[in-house]
Amino acid sequence: MKSSSISLLRRNSNLAIALSALVILFAAFVAIHPRGLSTYVLTIWFNQGTLLGLAAIAQFFVVLVRGVDLSVGPIVALTNVAASYLLIGSPGAIALGAAAVVALGVTCGLLNGITVVYGRIQPIVTTLATGSMISGLALLLRPTPGGSIDENLSDALTYDIYGIPTSALLLFGILIVLIVPLRRSLFGLTLYATGSAESSAHMTGVRVERVKLAAYAASGGFSALAGLYVSMVTLTGDPAIGPSYTLNSIAAVVLGGVALTGGVGSPLGAVVGALILKTISSLMFFSGLPPLAQPFFEGLVLAAAIVLGALGMLRIRNRLELFQ
């Protein structure tokens, strides 16, 4: 029993470190916040964390299969703009509009996947190019921020239920739906196998091309969910919001223990990394640091996370042993 607990801790050491850092940072944030620990503070914190958390989950799927998606931010922006046209009217119309927004994100993700898998172009080059096109489309649809979102839906998804932030329930629900299938289902295991050793996975019968396509489609879908939630929080469509989500989604997955070399990590880690970044931003704001210093400190955090992640990878002889 003791040995199995030690083995579990070793397999999840990066996530444990990230969770510990989040607890410490959040305690410091609450300590300096004028309102302290309250439903209002928790709701704002979770709303902001959910925005980046969904984008980080999107980035997680691509990083898991040894890729990187520089189009996450542009897809968030495009789907946010699309939502500003579609999430209004009757409940049925809103539901169809939300489905169309998610389908748009999945389509963008599939475009990335097809280009990477069948065009054999490096993911960073592919997603840089498609991201530019997607950003341009967002600007064509809405050159300046505007549009409208159903306020009742926004209130339902951004306030609280009996003191519990709705965004927290939403984020935890998504994580529960994701984590178990990723660890237990054939699809989840093939994702990790492809990221760990693509050639070996192919030789054992894994259809690597389909797995990668599914990973990019999932990335597009969760980027669309992030764009939808941006719409819920801001009640508008903004074509210029993309760049921060691209950079921060990559930083979040690294902070959460997801290996940039593929095959290691979890969506929970990606979300924890996103919450860490948002907490650091809030800490800097309430501590009186100048806003222009924030990118510098975020860069330091990212650099430190990459170094720690690299050191952790040196201790792993075979990444597939994580799932035995």
Gross morphology is: globular
- Give the class-level CATH name: Mainly Alpha
Helix content: over 70%
Q: What's the count of strands?
A: 2
Reported by name, the CATH topology is ABC transporter involved in vitamin B12 uptake, BtuC
* Integer tally of domains: 1
- Name the CATH architecture: Orthogonal Bundle
Topology pattern, helix = H, strand = E: HHHHHHHEEHHHHHHH
Largest sheet: 2 strands, antiparallel
- Beta content comes to under 5%
Number of helices: 14
Class from secondary-structure proportions: mainly alpha
Average pLDDT rating: 86
Strand order of the largest sheet: 1-2
The N- and C-terminal alpha carbons lie at a distance of 16 Å
Radius of gyration: 19 Å
Low-confidence stretches: 317-324
Which helices and strands occur, and which strands form pairs?
Layout: H1 2-11, H2 13-32, H3 39-64, H4 72-86, H5 91-117, H6 123-141, H7 151-158, E1 160-161, E2 164-165, H8 166-184, H9 186-196, H10 198-203, H11 208-234, H12 242-255, H13 267-286, H14 294-314
Antiparallel strand pairs: 1-2
Helix pairs in contact: 2-13, 3-8, 3-11, 3-12, 3-13, 4-5, 4-6, 4-11, 4-12, 5-6, 5-11, 7-11, 8-9, 9-11, 12-13, 12-14
Keywords:
single chain; 324 residues; mainly alpha; ABC transporter involved in vitamin B12 uptake, BtuC; two-stranded antiparallel sheet; 14 helices; 2 strands; 1% strand; globular; disordered C terminus
